[in-house]
Amino acid sequence: IFTYDDSITTVTTTIDTQKPLKSTSSFPHRQAIDECGGICYPDSMPNGTNLTGCTITFTGLKGGVWYAVAIQVEDFINTTSMVPMSSVPVQMLIYVQPEPTCSYNPTIFPLQQCLEVQANVSITFNISAKNQCIPSIDTLADILVSMNITGMSRSNLTSVSANSSVSYVVFNWTPQMDQIGYQQLCVIAIT
């Protein structure tokens, strides 16, 4: 409990364990709970960690494999404090796609320009992709959304019956008044 007058009162409740635990972050004090469950990066942060931008770059060593990632999110009252105000463990799984069997990237069409819409008026459009490989070698797996627009929905990937190399996703969106201005939708076609 912090009071912002001439004095600061701190009340702390901790649960201590009997054995010392490995450090799970740059926080120098022993933690009462092993938040990482044994999957923490050994002895330091990964080389791809950018503390200024709060980003971690992860490169899997092998494709087609799941990797466990555990980070400890901590916030501090200022840049010199070593005692976090809060500390939250975050664990996630990252799947690294295997190398594609075809060296040709799929082609996304036809939306390559801005699409003008009106607030409170629903719009539906398709984004299609063409597999540039022989279908027996590789197929289009999905059209992934890497940057979404709030409130936009999408269908599952559908193959065009007349051409098995082409598939599409139907997007539906009703822009709201607070979304007036430039909105960006980014998609990736993967095989």
Notes on the protein architecture:
- It is a single chain.
- The chain has 191 residues and is mainly beta.
- It has two domains: 98 residues, no CATH class; 84 residues, Immunoglobulin-like (Sandwich), CATH 2.60.40.
- Helix content is 0%, strand content 34%.
- The protein has no helices and eleven strands.
- Strands 5, 6, 8, 9 and 10 form a five-stranded antiparallel β-sheet that branches. Strands 1-2 form a two-stranded antiparallel ribbon. A two-stranded antiparallel sheet has the order 3-4.
- A hairpin with a 2-residue loop joins strand 9 and strand 10.
- The chain is flat.
- It starts with 48 loop residues before the first strand and ends with a strand.
- The N terminus is likely disordered.
Give keywords.
191 residues; two-stranded antiparallel sheet; 5-stranded antiparallel sheet; 34% strand; mainly beta; 0% helix; single chain; flat; Immunoglobulin-like
What is the number of beta strands?
Answer: 11
| Tally of DSSP helical segments | 0
Mean model confidence by pLDDT:
76
Q: How much helix, percentage-wise, in residues?
A: under 10%
Beta fraction? 25-35%
Largest sheet: 5 strands, antiparallel
Radius of gyration: 24 Å
* Poorly predicted residue ranges: 1-21
Cα-to-Cα separation, first versus last residue = 53 Å
- Which word captures the global form? flat
Total domain units? 2
Helix/strand-derived class? Answer: mainly beta
| H/E element sequence | EEEEEEEEEEE
